[in-house]
Design brief:
This protein is mainly alpha-helical. It has helices at residues 20-40, 51-70, 76-94, 108-137, 147-182, 186-218; strands at 9-13, 16-19. Mean pLDDT is 78; it is low at 221-227.
Length: 233
């Protein structure tokens, strides 16, 4: 039983190799790009709209609502990044029904890359919204003693994002593989459907955690109202 799509090698020349993780990742990105181009090529502002546009608006509106509920005031500014994370992880899970396909999120290298994207996005949005000085100041709040702990927190949550997504996706694939070898008819179908549900949940959790980290980096303290001057008698 394969523990990771990294073990499936399609082509190799010396130290260079093309494994299933790389192939399916690029194939998945191609599907997302072509799909977005096909869906958005004939958008309409009239009352009569296509089913694809209605589905697109439902997905976009739902993602924006979730981003806003996390605490980000202008969800459109973060929709591109967080929406792409969600769609990539969700689509990687949906394609598990295709024979021969293995989700790239079942590889630790892929989940690490996604977590590193979040690691870079957090300071990017934080500096853009608060300025370099305001963002760096958050590492020494409420006291400079917190600086090493805040730095450790940045690295540990990145590792946690990568390992959590990898573990959940790999465990689902392993369960299906075990059941296929024991009962190759009914149970694998049920577990495949359960794996699809798990993949959607993991896509939601991963995107929400990324939004929470960005919200924490972009949050500014409200200014305290200045005291009114005392009125003379």
């Amino acid at each position: 039983m394969r523990l990771s799509p990294d073990e499936v090698i399609f082509w190799q020349h010396g130290i260079f190799k093309l494994n299933a993780t790389i192939a399916f990742t690029w194939a998945l990105m191609l599907v997302l790009v072509l799909g977005s181009m096909l869906i958005t090529r004939r958008l309409s502002t009239r009352h009569e709209r296509s089913r694809w546009q209605n589905l697109l608006e439902i997905v976009v509106t739902g993602i924006e609502r979730q981003i806003q509920e996390v605490g980000l005031r202008e969800p459109r500014r973060y929709l591109g990044f967080l929406g792409t994370l969600f769609l990539f992880v969700a689509t990687a899970s949906l394609f598990t029904v295709v024979p021969g396909y293995e989700p790239p999120t079942g590889s630790l290298s892929t989940t690490t890359a996604l977590a590193l994207c979040v690691l870079v996005a957090v300071p990017f949005f934080g500096i853009r919204d608060r300025g370099l000085g305001g963002y760096l100041k958050s590492y020494v709040e409420p006291t400079p003693i917190m600086l090493p702990f805040n730095l450790i927190s940045e690295l540990s949550r990145t590792l946690a994002l990568a390992v959590r997504l990898f573990g959940n996706m790999m465990s689902g694939a392993m369960i299906v593989g075990i059941l296929l070898s024991i009962t190759p008819f009914f149970f694998p179908i049920v577990m495949t459907l359960l794996g699809l549900l798990t993949g959607m949940v993991q896509a939601y959790i991963f995107s929400i955690l990324a939004a929470v980290y960005i919200a924490a980096a972009t949050r500014t303290r409200a200014r305290e109202p200045s005291p009114e001057p005392a009125r003379g008698a």
